[in-house]
């Protein structure tokens, strides 16, 4: 993750990287379960005006927990944002890019296959119980419909260490004092491309992170700032004192997610000062 300067020695944002610890949701197949994550690293280690809340950031970076995928699953990077509001009303904003990284640990791959063997055994037991038969006579007792369903389940929702490539979710996050969504989004995407590209960028990755942490200043009110990311320049703009607060989120996405009628209804509720609850996964 990364930052820039707030004023002289202050930092604009922080960087966080998260990964795997242990699993839950045992009724689902292992590749569909959620797993606990943890913060691997964050930079800088301490900021006086913005102490790092490891538990909150970890939960907000991966609200659904850690997940595993194989080469057959969709592994496109995903972006989301969050807000941390403290007791005094101050806010910090997080922008997260979640991607999937190949698991190189033989131990984790073996553990995933073991989980699948246990899960498949439980599936056989449940089918057997529903058919009122014993494990020894399972093959001859299950009806054709149950056998077909079970075969499909194992074919489309399985993991074989000798055949499949295992991937685990990981994220990089920028924590900032202002919601510069577009600038943070562009920087995270460029940083991700630099990490995954076969051809390394012109400078070491640490140089780009150090630049945005310590050399990119926060734009003065009413001014815009252009700085260089990993591959392309990035521009962010800060409203003046008499302008509306910074809202860097694209309005088009609101229409796409809510639809015209729902958006008009929400806007009406805002004008009437009604309470509004948005529920989302």
Automatic annotation (TrEMBL):
Organism superkingdom: Eukaryota
GO molecular function, a single term: small GTPase binding
Phosphoprotein is among the record's keywords: no
Matches recorded under Pfam families: DENN, uDENN
Keyword annotations of the record: Guanine-nucleotide releasing factor
Gene3D superfamilies in the cross-refs: 3.30.450.200, 3.40.50.11500
Signal peptide (residue range): none
Residues spanning the membrane: none
PANTHER family in UniProt: DENN DOMAIN-CONTAINING PROTEIN 5B (PTHR46070:SF3), PINSTRIPE, ISOFORM A (PTHR46070)
Protein name: DEN5B protein
Source species: Rhynochetos jubatus
């Amino acid at each position: 993750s990364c930052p820039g300067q707030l004023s002289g020695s202050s930092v604009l944002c922080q960087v966080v990287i998260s990964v795997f610890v242990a699993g839950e949701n045992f009724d689902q197949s292992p590749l569909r379960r959620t797993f606990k994550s943890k913060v691997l690293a964050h930079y800088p280690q301490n900021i006086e005006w913005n102490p790092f809340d490891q538990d909150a950031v970890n939960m907000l970076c991966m609200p659904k927990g850690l997940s595993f995928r194989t080469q057959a699953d969709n592994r496109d990077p995903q972006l989301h944002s969050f807000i941390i509001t403290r007791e005094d009303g101050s806010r910090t904003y997080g922008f997260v890019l979640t991607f999937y990284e190949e698991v190189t640990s033989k131990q984790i791959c073996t553990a995933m296959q073991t989980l699948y063997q246990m899960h498949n055994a439980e599936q056989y037991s449940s089918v057997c119980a529903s058919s009122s038969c014993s494990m020894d006579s399972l093959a001859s007792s299950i009806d054709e419909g149950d056998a077909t369903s079970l075969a499909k389940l194992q074919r489309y929702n399985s993991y074989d260490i000798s055949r499949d490539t295992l991937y685990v979710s990981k994220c990089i996050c920028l924590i900032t004092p202002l919601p510069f969504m577009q600038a943070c989004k562009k920087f995270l995407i460029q940083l991700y491309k630099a990490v995954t590209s076969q051809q390394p960028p012109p400078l070491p990755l640490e140089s780009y992170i150090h630049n945005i942490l310590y050399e990119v200043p926060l734009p003065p009110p009413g001014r815009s700032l252009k700085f260089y990311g990993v591959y392309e320049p990035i521009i962010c703009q800060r409203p003046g004192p008499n302008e509306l607060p910074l809202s860097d989120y694209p309005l088009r996405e609101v229409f796409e997610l809510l639809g015209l009628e729902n958006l008009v209804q929400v806007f009406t509720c805002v004008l009437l000062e009604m309470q509004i609850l948005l529920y989302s996964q």
